[in-house]
Amino acid sequence: MTEIAARRAAGAIGGVTAAAAALGLGYLTADLSGGLWPVDAVGVQVIDRTPGPIKDWAVRELGTADRPLLRVGICVTLGLAAALAGLIGSKPGPRPRRTAIAVTALLGAVGIFFATVSRSATTSPAIRLLPALVTFAAAIVAMDLVLRSLHRRSGTPPPAAQPAGFDRRRFLVTAAALAAASAGSAAISTVISTGTGEAARTKFRVPRPSDPAGPLRAGVSVDVPGVSRFVTPNPKFYRVDTLLQVPRIDPDDWELRIHGMVDRELRLSLGDLVNRRLIERDITLTCVSNEVGGPYVGNARWIGVPIGDILDEVGVRPGADAVKSTSIDGLTIGTPLSALDDGRDAIFAIAMNGEPLPFDHGFPVRMVVPGLYGYVSATKWIVDFEVTRFEDFSAYWTDRGWAVEAPIKTASRIDVPKGFATIKAGPAVAAGVAWAQRRGVAKVEVQVDDGPWQEATLAAEDTIDTWRQWSFRWIATPGNHKLTVRATDGSGQVQTTDRAAPRPNGSSGLHNTVVTAE
Predict the structure, then answer these.
(1) Is the C-alpha dihedral spanning 318, 321, 326, 332 positive or negative?
(2) Number of neighbouring beta carbons within 10 Å of residue 342
(3) Which of 83, 104, 280, 483 reaches 20 to 30 Å from 197, CA-CA?
(4) How far is residue 325's CA from residue 274's CA, in Å, rounded to a whole number?
(5) 251 phi, psi to nearest 5 deg
(6) 3-state secondary structure of 452
(7) Which 3-state string (H, E, C) describes 124-184?
(8) Model-level pTM greater than 0.70?
(9) Which SS3 state, helix, strand or coil, does residue 434 take?
């Protein structure tokens, strides 16, 4: 490798290490201050501005991997831009160095801009911008150190006509120091965020509910390996949201404001909330993004304060028909007021399956409303609850083409056997789950190939707000077979065969699976 080529390569590598050091320091600052890391600020804006069909595809095909992939993509893009800046700055003369610094400053300014326009419900502008400002300053300083290390020890660049020699040792020391700064910042940040966050969560003790759910009814589970567990473990519960970094809120700092079309405004700390009447309920949640037969549904045991109690206390004024709830990240959700005061177990949840809410699922407080898809009811990390009218606001998801109101549709899923599985010919079993929150599941039927619909065996019903397991025994003859399932809800309505995509108000159609019997 010629001296010029070596210097250019060093410039590109140095640009990447400078960017890594700056981003690492910015990440640490975000954890310490509660501000917004520039990568996440850009990522949230990408999510908010992504066309609906592309976003739907990402949820369907990538699941929870979409967020880390987006983060990686942004970091790679920044790394390439930083490498280009370092390559430009490696050329001899003051002008290339100034250009490289200008490119670096432009990248930092982009981060500041996105942090400025990012939504947030509670973080002050100064705190929200701090990580981006630190990243901006660190990037310029780090890039300047890299470019200085690429010039002769005297600091005077050689004329353009001369071979562009540089002190390799000095460059390697600079690059190693920046890489160490990046790794050290990431490690410290991990320790801080994990340790501090978990300490805040574990110190919260779940109080005993005054109205407990009691033990699960006997027979709510079918004895078929591979069927979704009746109670979904917290780590297995689906997560769909717009955040790249999950909030880790100190419960001592959390407050919920209830206001709007009410007789008296109310502000509640977590201590205020847990000292109220608490109920415990088994409730199945479903995401509107769930495709037919998809994974975005789960059942858990929740503890929380009835939202109806709060509404009775504050006094709802005539004319109100909606609630606009806001997450700490500024995301808004619109919920029909009728779903919160009609006697169903809509709650401000503080616990999930016997423990404090996981951070992924809204710690310290979230909304849980039976019978509605999550995008109109299940606000996580909630900090604001405004009683209002639908005509006076537009929520985050309705701005993006989703329906204003979205009751959950009757649905069913085959868990066993999996699609394209090979099974033994002869006696066989199929099993799965069905749900129709607020109506309950009255019957499940299975069709083998093009044969008649045959009634499956239902497990015991826990409540009309939970899913219901089912099993079906059949004789599998050698060859390929298609199994199709449908449910009938408690009102007598049979699950529709009309196929519809999730947008705008939930998918519909019948789930089927193809297996081979040998």
Answers:
(1) negative
(2) 12
(3) 280
(4) 19
(5) -60, -25
(6) coil
(7) CHHHHHHHHHHHHHHHHHHHHHHHHHCCCCCCCCCCCCCCCCCCHHHHHHHHHHHHHHHHH
(8) yes
(9) strand
